[in-house]
Amino acid sequence: MAVPKRKVSRMKRGNRRSTDALKAPSYVEDKESGELRRPHHIDLKSGKYRGRQILNPKDDY
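Above: the chain's sequence. Below: its structure in token form.
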């Protein structure tokens, strides 16, 4: 059975566990439509990404 050679310090243990904390996703306001969207994602309402039309705009029924 594998046995650790040295005790893991509190700093190393804490650095490893720091990624376990849950963070709320960040949102930014789109410059053109004013809708909230995720950074580096397509605006689903207008269908644009970085000023270029990627998808057809979503119609509200």
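The chain has a mean pLDDT of 89.
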